[in-house]
Design brief:
The chain is α+β, with helices and mostly antiparallel strands. Helix 1 packs parallel to helix 4, helix 1 runs parallel beside helix 8 and helix 8 packs antiparallel against helix 9.
Length: 521
């Protein structure tokens, strides 16, 4: 319904629905662009649950730009926990293990290092990264679409007050069961619910089995065991039993631990949930845009879901700012769906494969145990360590839309696009990391502006002009096929928008590129 005459109680430029990691990141990014932002979250507080576990290297690059990467790292596990271990029980030795690339040790392709941490440790840092209003306990119950915005109908569960807020853009980061998506009638496609899962949070003294062999995840045939915080706390995650109401949860956890009566298990909380797998049929309708689990719910195995959502809003917020500030045409928002939908499908496929392989390992070992096979007779795992080297998926994302100017060059051809990352300055790709000075990366030159990287700033001086936010940074000569007068135009999200290997092809090359990328006239 489109209506321009709805009375409202407040007006903002951007309304963010959902106060999880994706919504909080969007709030911080929009505020840095100088936008008037309001975030609403139906729950009364930040998540108290230790859900998402892995902050990958690309998300940490984004948090580095927000200036909070150090705080996140300080409250996270050390890099030695960036490993997955497979055991008969927690008390048994490893029968396999694999490093999580970009978590366990630095990679040459990034100035950042991913971390293992829990969502309830991450979110306070994201909340503190901005001062824009965040109203908890406030739920969106209705929407009225307008020609150049939307009116949100809100209810405060604390006071009972009903209000209407007009926003020029609404960012829906309200999770897999998105109210906004449902109100807009946007469907989903994909496997749907693929598993009923239970998380049991418990306390136990497990140091003698884990202290010398740390990991972010211990996988056993009858469930996985996860350390929650550096100072202590554990969770068991596994398939929900047939009769959860009568399950001996302490006994089930003890069976997975394999510690017998030597360890007391104190169950603190039991949470049942559904592992979903889908991608929304649309990511946008008018001035309403979906992000994170609202537009792609992926299985948790591999830690891809939250990180994909953070990349969503990093792609989106600069476009919203451009449209609202007038240096981009409204058509720029079309590129969000064009660029992120393929990434969502690729991420979903990888995450579903991760989950299926994990279930396969557990099922195989359960069958072996039932037949009396000894650990030494275990079958080969259905993957190699390369399977966990997902830099191709994390850093190798490439966009193809009107917000990228192709230059006719051929894309890189990695042996495996999921595991292998080939740095390239080809338009559409993430700008490669290169140290410009001690502790200063090419990635550190990006922000609330376009960046022109060139070995010869003087050759481009005559082309700099408003209205676009633009900075020029000197780039060392000899990067790839970039000549001494060449240049790279990098978008605010760190992806190359245009490339001129030899130098300016004309005195309006930069203006024409910015006009095309931003959809202005």
């Amino acid at each position: 319904m489109v209506d321009q005459d709805v009375p409202v109680d407040d007006e903002v430029e951007v309304l963010i629905v959902g106060g999880g990691p994706v919504g909080l990141t969007a709030r911080a990014l929009c505020e840095r662009w100088g936008l008037r932002v309001l975030l609403v979250e139906k729950h009364r507080q930040l998540s108290p649950f230790p859900r998402s576990r892995l902050v990958n290297v690309r998300s940490m690059e984004i948090f580095r730009l927000l200036g909070i990467d150090g705080k996140i790292t300080a409250s996270a596990f050390g890099p030695e926990y960036g490993r997955i271990r497979f055991r008969e029980t927690l008390a048994a030795p490893d029968f396999a293990s694999a490093a999580l690339v970009g978590i366990e040790a630095p990679v040459a392709e990034s100035p950042a290092l991913g971390v293992m941490t829990s969502q309830d440790r991450l979110e306070p840092h994201l909340l503190a990264a901005a001062s824009a209003p965040a109203r908890f306990g406030v739920e969106l119950t209705g929407l009225t679409e307008e020609e150049d915005g939307v009116v949100a109908h809100l209810v405060d569960h604390g006071s009972g007050e009903h209000t209407r807020v007009r926003a020029r853009c609404l960012l829906a980061a309200d999770g897999a069961h998105s109210t906004v998506r449902d109100l807009l009638g946007i469907g989903t496609a994909g496997p749907g619910a693929i598993a009923d899962v239970t998380t049991v949070v418990f306390d136990a003294d497990l140091g003698r089995w884990c202290a010398r062999h740390p990991a972010g995840l211990y996988v056993a045939p009858h469930g996985s065991v996860i350390p929650l915080y550096p100072e202590g706390g554990w969770a068991w995650v596994g398939a929900t039993p047939a009769d959860p109401g009568h399950t001996d949860w302490a006994g089930l956890v003890t069976h997975t631990l394999g510690t017998g009566t030597d360890v007391r298990v104190d169950v603190l909380r039991v949470q049942h949930w559904v592992m979903n797998a889908f991608v929304a049929e649309r990511f946008r309708r008018g001035r309403v845009l979906l992000a994170g689990d609202a537009c792609h719910a992926v299985p948790v195995v591999g830690g891809l879901g939250m990180n994909a959502g953070i990349a969503d809003v990093h792609n989106l917020c600069w476009k919203v700012a451009g449209v609202l500030r007038g240096w981009a045409g409204p058509g720029l928002l079309d590129s969000y769906e064009r660029e992120r939908v393929p990434v969502a499908h690729r991420t979903l496929a990888q995450a579903v494969a991760n989950a299926q392989l994990l279930f396969q390992v557990q099922a195989r070992r359960q069958e072996q145990s039932a037949s009396g096979a000894a650990p030494s007779e275990q079958v080969e795992l259905p993957w190699t360590e390369r399977y966990f080297a997902q830099l191709g998926l994390v850093l190798g994302v490439a966009y193809d839309s009107g917000a990228v100017l192709p230059d006719g060059s051929a894309p890189p051809e990695p042996d495996d696009e999921g595991t292998d990352y080939v740095p390239t300055t080809r338009p559409g790709h993430r700008m490669p990391h290169l140290w410009l000075a001690p502790e200063r990366s090419t990635l550190d030159t990006f922000g609330e502006w376009f960046t022109l990287l060139t070995p010869d700033p003087a050759a481009w001086e005559g082309q700099l002009a408003p209205p676009w936010p633009l900075r020029v940074e000197r780039l060392p000569a000899g990067l790839g096929d970039l000549g001494p007068h060449g240049a790279l135009l990098v978008r605010p999200d760190g992806h190359v928008g245009a490339r001129w290997p030899a130098g300016p092809p004309g005195d309006r090359a930069l203006r024409e590129a910015l006009t095309a990328i931003t959809g202005t006239t």
